[in-house]
Amino acid sequence: MSSTDDEDWLYRRGDYASGEPSDQSPPPRTPPPEPRQPRPEAGRPTPVGHYDAAGAPLSDAGSRSAGVGEPPVSPTRPGSPGEPGGGNVPSGPRAPRPRRRVRPGRIVLVLLVVVLAYVIGVPLATWPFMPKTDATPAGTRPADTPGHVFVLAGSDSRAALSTEEQVKLGTGNDAGQRTDTIMLLYVPPSGKAALISVPRDSYVPIPGRGKNKINAAYAFGGPKLLVQTIEQNTGLRVDGYVEVGFGGFVNVVDAVGGIQMCPPNAIQDKDSNLDIPAGCQNMSGATALGYVRMRHADPEGDLGRAKRQREMVSALAKKVLSPATLLLPWQWWGVNSSVSQSLTVGNDTGPMEFAGLVSAAMKIGTGQADTLSVPVGNPNAHTAAGSSVLWDTKKAAAMFDAMKRGEGDLTPYA
Question: Quick one: which H or E segment has residue 9?
Fold first, then answer.
């Protein structure tokens, strides 16, 4: 039906002028045809999805790719904005964010840093309180060697002890100062460290003083002359010096709660104020001092005393590094505080050199170091200085040469 017929029917004109109802009614208007979609090219499947107003197909995700400089279009589904009952709906379930996993390696690394800071930090904090002394020799010195050599000296000076302490410790009241103990702590570039006793009665040349017992060098010129004597008789350059007196030794041993020593026989010695049974036992500082100083009751004399001194250093290092000492902060602080007040180091011995010495002591305490003595040829030679110890010059020279080369095993030369 045309638009004219519609108007005639509405206004009752023409065929509809009679005013009577008509069976005819205008048919519903035909909706305009939908725009034709572009035909797909031959051989291509027709894309399934939505089309935009221009008739172009949308992307597979339901939106056209955003152009350069245009914000991306959020994918929509029926019910999204622009459609009845719309609301933004994700095209799929949102993936959960993965939880960060704590790696065990990181935990171990953090714990290791904390432990090292604790173990190293406490000694560094007490280091400034350690007394210093001039132990650097004058004149020409031997060349540096691949390893490191430290001199450990035990002074028998009674100057810091009261009369009561001298009686209690059995030290006597001799004037002056000498060295009851002389050791070389050798740390090679690789291999085993070595703790080497130098018998205090060793008969050697002392610079400017002729030949005498080596402990007389300390009495004549203190640490400087002792170090110079050792360097000239061994050909080794000394890298550090550490000294402890009677009172300091007792304080350090007591700070760790005593050390375990195992005398094979019962000992009664008035000179060292010693009365102990045979067998392993925990010795206090005073008892340990008497045990390592005693020589008149030892059939080996000075050589037997040197053996006990090496045993004492090993036992003390083991006790200092035991879990009972390291894991208790107040115990670890007390030990380091006692050490810092009891030891005297050379002016040239800095924290790094002392750390190397402590590292070697750790090896001694854990059984990873050798304990030796300078090879002896005659333990009871008659000299101008009285009964003395003579080195085996050939074997001793071989040992010192091996140390100059930085060898890590000195046992073949002992």
Answer: helix 3-11
